[in-house]
Structure formats: C-alpha cells, structure tokens
Amino acid sequence: MGLFNKNIKAGDHLITERLGYTHHGIYLGRNKVIHYSGLAAGLRAGPVEITDLSTFSQGKRTYVSHHSNRVFSHGQTIKRARSRLSEDKYNLLLNNCEHFINWCIYGKASSPQVTKMFTRGLSIGMMHVSLGGVGLAPIGLRAIAKRF
C-alpha cells in the first residue's frame, strides 16, 4: 500500500493515486476510511461509504495531506463526514471525493483537480484560437467533461 506516514490519526485527509487523478478520503481510525466512492470502483458512481484502508488504497501509494489552516478539528471533520454517510449524489465535476473532503475540513466544497482540468482545457482552447487552429484540435469544456 505504501503509506508515507504510518502515524496517521483519525480525521486525517488521505490521498491515494489513481491513473490520471488522485482519490481522497478521511481516516476514521482502526483501519477505516470514509470517502465518496464515486468512480473508485469503476464506471458506476457510488455513495459516501466507509471502507477499510487497503480497499481505499487499492494497492496504490497513499499519503496524508496536512491542513494547517483547517476550519474544523479532526473530530469535527469526522462528524461532518459521517453526517453524509450513504449520500448518493456523486458528480465528477460538482460533487466528487475531493469536494467532499474539502467540505468536511473547510466547510466549503471545492476540487482543485477539477479546477485545474478546466484551466488546462481553457488554456488549450485559447491556444487553439490564438494560433488560428494550426495543427491543434479545439478542446471545449463539453469535450473535457465527456472524457471523464
């Protein structure tokens, strides 16, 4: 599994690598993680659920992301995460695992991965326009969203 920090504590934000993105969860202690399962197990969107650490990690590198400016304590983060247990409103662009984690820790849902994806997509689209489309295929937001 490859956890960098074996001293993880309940309420820590865990990140595990996937092909082309990272998956996020909150460590509950006793080898359990709560996460928005979303597309973690394939193409079927899943709910907020509790799973064991090895299932969450899927054998991939997993590490703790520290938040020095968190709004909610580790204990409050866990309570917030548990309050959404079984929620089944996953949306890759608007309500994914990273949105969930940031809501639990900061009270505001956000996904830097999604923001970065759109920023890159817009940059490529703008480059296409500025170069007059020479040798570049236009990539719009719809094309990017459909890809994921």
| Strand line-up of the largest beta sheet | 4-3-2-1-5
Low-pLDDT segments:
126-130, 134-148
Computed structural class: alpha+beta
C-alpha termini separation: 26 Å
Please, what is the oligomeric state? single chain
Our Rg estimate from Cα atoms comes to 17 Å
* Strand residue percentage: 15-25%
Number of helices: 5
- Mean pLDDT reading: 82
Tally the beta strands: 5
> Biggest sheet, open or closed, and with what strands and sense?
5 strands, antiparallel
Shape: globular
Protein described:
34% of the residues lie in helices and 22% in strands. With 148 residues, the chain is α+β, with helices and mostly antiparallel strands. Strands 4-3-2-1-5 form a 5-stranded antiparallel beta sheet. β2 and β3 form a beta hairpin. α2 packs across α3 (97-106).
